[in-house]
Structure formats: structure tokens, C-alpha cells
Write a structure and sequence with these properties.
Distance between the termini: 39 Å
Order of helices and strands: HEEEEEEEEE
Helix content: 10-25%
Number of strands: 9
Number of domains: 1
Low-confidence stretches: 21-27
Radius of gyration: 18 Å
Strand content: over 45%
CATH architecture: Beta Barrel
Structural class: mainly beta
Number of helices: 1
């Protein structure tokens, strides 16, 4: 086994060991979510590339259950014509964030806000010329949970200069 694979296995074991106590009891169970959304800015993204699905979980880190630490993974799959060619590429945006959220209230509507850091990536599959682009970036989130239903606005941007802020609206379920 190569050193890279051993390092990756060791990292996965450490992460599993640290997250296991969070998942082991009902009292510390996280809020899992699944949501779908649409990117409405920037405008130069084609209609088929605007749709996104996200899932993740948030875990309370204080006794009053108002501050949450969690993760979120976002993806979609779409095809796009290659400029100056008759070929079509398949694109897979794959974003991953570690978030901190503040959720107020516990009955009825529960507004929240927060932010996170992570990787904003895109896999481009094109016969003979596959590509992976990734940039370290941030996201800001704000929304409201209405029982098991949630609505959320997200702003994302890589730290690298030259990229636009991306605005997206999500709706989904929390359990």
C-alpha cells in the first residue's frame, strides 16, 4: 500500500473516530438535511447548469442548542456544448463546506445564519481531455426552518480573485 493511501486511510479513521460520539446518542444527534436549489447569479450559467442538490448535517456544540457545527456537500450533473467544437462536455460541480450556524428558537419557525469554508470544485468530463478545477472558498448562509421544511439563501465565492459571487436559493427537508 502506498504512503498516500495509508495517509488517506489514517485521516479517514481519525475523522470517523471524532464524529462517532456525535452520532452515537439521540441527545447529540445532528440535524440532517437534503435540499435542492437554483443558482440565480451569475447570469452566464446556462439553464441546465443552474440546478444543484445539497446534503449534510449540523451538530449542536452548546447546551442551549443554538450554535451548530456541520458539513455540507453540493453537486449536480449537466452537459454543456464546448465552444468552437461539436463536442459536449459533462460537468459535475462538487462543493464541500464545513459550516458554523446560529439557529434561534426551537418551536415553529427557526431562523438561522452562518458561514463556512471549503472547496468549490468542478469535474469536466470530455473525451480525451478530462479536467478538475478546485478553489478554496467561503459561503454565507441564511434561512429559516419551518418544522421539517427549510428555505435557505447561499452566497459562495472562491478566495481566488477573478471569480464572481454565486447566489443560490435552496428549499428542502431537515430531520
Amino acid at each position: 500500500m502506498s504512503q498516500f493511501k495509508r495517509d488517506r486511510a489514517a485521516l479517514c479513521a481519525v475523522v470517523a473516530f471524532l464524529l462517532a460520539p456525535l452520532c452515537s446518542t439521540e441527545a447529540t444527534a445532528g440535524d440532517a438535511f437534503l435540499k435542492g436549489g437554483v443558482i440565480f447569479q451569475p447570469r452566464d450559467i446556462g439553464f441546465e447548469g443552474r440546478w444543484r442538490v445539497a446534503f449534510g448535517s449540523d451538530y449542536a456544540v452548546n447546551f442551549s442548542e443554538t450554535v451548530y457545527l456541520g458539513f455540507e456537500l453540493q453537486t449536480s450533473v449537466y452537459r454543456q456544448d464546448v465552444v468552437g467544437s461539436s463536442r459536449t462536455a459533462t460537468l459535475f460541480p462538487a462543493n464541500g463546506f464545513v459550516n458554523v450556524k446560529y439557529k434561534s428558537g426551537s418551536i415553529g419557525a427557526r431562523p438561522y445564519g452562518g458561514g463556512g469554508l471549503g472547496l468549490i470544485s468542478a469535474f469536466t468530463l470530455l473525451s480525451g481531455n478530462n479536467d478538475w478545477q478546485s478553489e478554496f472558498g467561503f459561503q454565507l448562509v441564511g434561512g429559516v426552518e419551518l418544522g421539517s421544511f427549510s428555505v435557505e439563501l447561499q452566497l459562495q465565492r472562491p478566495f481566488e480573485s477573478g471569480f464572481e459571487m454565486t447566489y443560490a436559493l435552496y428549499a428542502g427537508f431537515v430531520w
